[in-house]
Amino acid sequence: xxxxxxxxxxxxxxxxxxxxxxxxxxxxxxxxxxxxxxxxxxxxxxxxxxxxxxxxxxxxxxxxxxxxxxxxxxxxxxxxxxxxxxxxxxxxxxxxxxxxxxxxxxxxxxxxxxxxxxxxxxxxxxxxxxxxxxxxxxxxxxxxxxxxxxxxxxxxxxxxxxxxxxxxxxxxxxxxxxxxxxxxxxxxxxxxxxxxxxxxxxxxxxxxxxxxxxxxxxxxxxxxxxxxxxxxxxxxxxxxxxxxxxxxxxxxxxxxxxxxxxxxxxxxxxxxxxxxxxxxxxxxxxxxxxxxxxxxxxxxxxxxxxxxxxxxxxxxxxxxxxxxxxxxxxxxxxxxxxxxxxxxxxxxxxxxxxxxxxxxxxxxxxxxxxxxxxxxxxxxxxxxxxxxxxxxxxxxxxxxxxxxxxxxxxxxxxxxxxxxxxxxxxxxxxxxxxxxxxxxxxxxxxxxxxxxxxxxxxxxxxxxxxxxxxxxxxxxxxxxxxxxxxxxxxxxxxxxxxxxxxxxxxxxxxxxxxxxxxxxxxxxxxxxxxxxxxxxxxxxxxxxxxxxxxxxxxxxxxxxxxxxxxxxxxxxxxxxxxxxxxxxxxxxxxxxxxxxxxxxxxxxxxxxxxxxxxxxxxxxxxxxxxxxxxxxxxxxxxxxxxxxxxxxx
Length: 649
Prior knowledge:
This protein is 31% helix and 23% strand. The longest helix is centred in the middle third of the chain and has 22 residues, at 325-346. It has three domains: 20-217, 3-Layer(aba) Sandwich (Rossmann fold), CATH 3.40.50.880; 222-436, 3-Layer(aba) Sandwich (Rossmann fold), CATH 3.40.50; 453-637, no CATH class. Strands 2-1-3-4-9-8-7-5-6 form a nine-stranded mixed beta sheet, with helices on both faces. Strands 17, 18, 19, 20, 22, 24 and 27 form a seven-stranded mixed beta sheet that branches. A five-stranded parallel beta sheet has the order 12-11-10-15-16, sandwiched between helices. By secondary structure, the protein is of the alpha/beta class. Helix 7 (222-236) packs across helix 8 (249-261) and helix 19 (546-565) packs antiparallel against helix 20 (614-627).
């Protein structure tokens, strides 16, 4: 079915449906600001994301305000804040995380940076007599990710929520005065704050007295799919469109929507083997064809291996020799855009007139620093390959179609099911577009991260406070993390010893964790499953060469077969398998990162004795160590997101 201009004109717009007063979300640079808007939509409310310093007169029709989180400290010079006149409003206003700190600062309270960060879930006690919490229980699970705390509440405000840190200190979780109220945690992140939507309902229905729009409450339907296809058809017009698909759920759904919307003679679908994929190309092509896609496979291994990028007049590459993860992603993203033009030329088309369709999702866009708020405060956690400057240039030229870039993974899976796709596609585990480019952690003698003895000793001492059974070691490499809406790029810590999964969970997750007590020093904790002592592991020169790729492909295949045999493919949302540049002798190590999430904005590590039997991870490690001679140790990652991201790079 191809969409006509008449159908485009009939597609209903959100503006035409709006009858209730909008909610204005003041964006302080939050990673989760889009999730606030998504939560409001799911609850039946229309909203606008605007810069935090938007003048009040530009929001005169507001039914309520929400001030989002952000990476700044309110006591720092130049911290983003609402205008002074904003605080004169009588409209119900909710501050979230940084929004609470901004509210406390504006009304004369005190906000200070703590010695310990909070990145994870915690029990919060709330006053259920206040209408904000009238729909929840007195004790609720909540997600915190912050390093600053309200240490003195403004005089007019009352504390209506609190929680206890692991040192016994009670801190402010929520406060309120008249039409102003705030929470330090994140109600919009429903995976970790299960009652968060009820809190937002308390704010919007019981305090702001705004009834939900029943049309929004219906969620995705065939009509919504028709609207998405109509938008694709309108963007494409009479132009040719090249669609890149990897076989993952995002690009597959995006391409299938395009099939519904675009004349088949003008839609060209390609699968590129960039040399860094899994050993499943033929299976992926078959799966895509069975889903109804006329896909052409191109072997672009050498093109990617030798690809380069110029940054500030300096040429970096070829890709196989690049160590820096940011440059790796730029090279891959640029090469895909170059290949789009090469494919266009092979079809006898002008590349400057041909559009690119890709399956960018909301998490890709947000982590790349591109929130819907459009402010300059949103920090880039990592630049996804589909968000590099070359892609932005296509967007600016009107040559980019991204039908899913406002949707999270759980929503895309729902669309896949609505479209009738089989479970093996709808619930297929994601694999990053750059492939194993970002799962091989590279290093040479000159690039390995030095381990500071004093920091190493402090971390071991902290571990010894919890147990005498574990050896702790800072690793000579870095990984990407996120906390308080800001990027971290610091060293992971490895633990080894007689397994006590509850103690390991405490050391890796929540406010008792090593990352919380060593903020901006550590962002991941991994546990050694193999017998080789971690003190024996030494750096091994590691590039993106074919030897390293072969090792990782073997380990990845073993882990995925292990998950399939155990029937865990739906229970584990994603399982990155990562190659580390150190081992015993000239060998290397593997990290297994089984991860549970719905949106990929947050998530938790799969933990033995909580989510799965310990034998599941022991058996996986044993299979890898027995079958791959070049691997001397296998680690299990135990860190949630935050403070660690899903991928290491």
